[in-house]
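Action item from last meeting closed. Structure (472 res):
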């Protein structure tokens, strides 16, 4: 939603906008509450709960079992037992061009700003009065950079990074952008591959990544190289890949929930061509051949522990036997996609109880089906931010234990305001009992509910702006 330039006026009006937006979803919300009337738990009781040891860390569990004379310890299986190495793959470095596994989960994004970082002491001579600045994530460093359209010659789009942190750009490589697809809706320039030497000499190999700038609003960064090799498991050969997502020179950072976003697991990435079509196919969590790095890989029904070396050049496979716990969604009809440090899963069906490998999980997407008292069937889908909100964003399944959730209606309406790239965004979502978030739209008896409308009014009740919410 585009804001009027008078920010003070907008600020006064935004509160009214939220109220109107809340009213606009009144029907969906009241119906959702009706659908949830069979749930009698109060919000104070919302969220995850497990049987006896639900909140215990492994250390606390150990203390408790010791207090109980060690009997429990004997009954609780280990989260994972692994055998000897059955295969070792050696991987070589290959460029990330064309259809490659680094295109999907291994890119990072940063918004631009018009504010020049105080550390940048000089600028190239052809910088116009207004340029864009961005901090580039390289491992644990933020490298300042400038993007601008040159005031000279062909007025090329250019990029420079202060890779050595001395505040000077004159000593840095100049990257000239190539415009991608002139008929695109968005204006996208591609730069690079850009290389950044390690902060300390010899500490890590050079980081190298591709950069794209979209509409001058944001930049994305994806690895210029990844590692690829082959492994034979149970007599069958598989192509595999390891990807250093954050350019820190290490390839072995495991997934730890919560994820930063639905395409941002926040860890390094692993890929395996399970169907043998010579491509790493990307799909939803639990089905994709490109996945956040985890302890377990399921190949042809068997579990393996895949141990990636720090430099990504070798992967050791051991047969693994995970301990299993139970995931219980209280009889709700759900479709769940989860990332984990154990196994990535796609779970579906009524009954909603599953036996899953013990591990730390985060829900990436959720679809919930409810029926109201009139027999209408409602389908609610998680919003993009569900991976970072509520109890489902990060939880643990312990071996031999049950982790339970009570989700869905009655919903609360959660509104937010954000200001990005010179625009103001008003957003709202429906929050279920475990703090999980849904798009306010949905399906009622297979018919999509239109996105709610909004109006912004100022202090004199005059309409400043109006429109309809849109959800991707
Ligand atoms: Ca410099
Ligand atoms: Ca890494
Ligand atoms: Ca494949």
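Sequence:
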């Amino acid at each position: 939603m585009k804001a009027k330039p008078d920010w003070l006026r907008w600020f006064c009006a935004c509160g009214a906008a939220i109220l109107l937006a809340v009213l606009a979803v009144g029907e969906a919300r009241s119906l959702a509450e009706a659908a949830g009337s069979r749930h009698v738990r109060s919000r104070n009781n919302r969220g995850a709960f497990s049987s006896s040891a639900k909140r215990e860390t492994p250390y606390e569990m150990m203390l408790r079992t010791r207090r109980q004379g060690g009997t429990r310890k004997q009954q609780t299986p280990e989260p994972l037992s692994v055998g000897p190495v059955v295969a070792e793959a050696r991987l070589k470095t290959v460029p990330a061009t064309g259809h490659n596994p680094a295109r999907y989960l291994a890119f990072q994004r940063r918004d631009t700003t018009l504010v020049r970082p105080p550390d940048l002491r000089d600028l190239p001579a052809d910088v116009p009065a207004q340029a864009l600045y961005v901090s580039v994530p390289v491992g644990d460093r933020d490298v300042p950079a400038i993007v601008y359209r040159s005031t000279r010659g062909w007025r090329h789009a250019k990029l420079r990074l202060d890779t050595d942190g001395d505040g000077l750009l004159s000593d840095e490589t100049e990257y000239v952008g190539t415009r991608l697809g002139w008929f695109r809706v968005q204006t996208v320039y591609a730069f690079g591959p850009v290389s950044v030497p390690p902060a300390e000499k010899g500490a890590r190999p050079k980081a190298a990544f591709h950069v794209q700038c979209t509409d001058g609003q944001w930049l994305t960064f994806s690895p210029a190289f990844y590692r690829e090799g082959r492994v034979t498991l149970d007599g069958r050969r598989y192509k595999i890949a390891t990807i250093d997502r954050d350019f820190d020179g290490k390839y072995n950072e495991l997934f730890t929930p919560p994820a930063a976003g639905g395409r941002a697991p926040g860890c390094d990435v692993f890929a395996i061509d399970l169907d043998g079509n010579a491509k790493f196919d990307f799909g939803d969590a639990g089905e994709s051949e490109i996945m956040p790095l985890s302890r377990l890989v399921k190949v042809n029904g068997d579990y393996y522990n895949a141990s990636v070396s720090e430099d990504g050049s070798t992967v050791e496979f051991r047969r693994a036997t995970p301990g299993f716990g139970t995931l219980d969604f209280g009889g709700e009809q759900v479709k769940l996609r989860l990332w984990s440090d154990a196994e990535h899963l796609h779970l579906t069906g009524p009954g909603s109880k599953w036996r899953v490998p013990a591990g730390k999980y985060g829900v990436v997407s959720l679809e919930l089906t409810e029926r109201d008292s009139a027999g209408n069937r409602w389908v609610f889908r998680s919003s993009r931010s569900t991976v970072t909100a509520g109890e489902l964003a990060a939880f643990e399944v312990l071996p031999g234990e049950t982790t339970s959730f009570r989700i869905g209606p009655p919903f609360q309406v959660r509104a937010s305001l954000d200001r990005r790239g010179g625009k103001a965004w008003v957003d709202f979502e429906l929050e279920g009992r475990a703090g999980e978030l849904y798009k306010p739209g949905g399906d009622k008896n297979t018919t999509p509910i239109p996105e709610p409308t909004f109006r912004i009014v100022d202090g004199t009740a005059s309409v400043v702006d109006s429109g309809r919410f849109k959800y991707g």
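Note appended to the action item: Residues 1-55, 65-74 have pLDDT under 50 and may be disordered.
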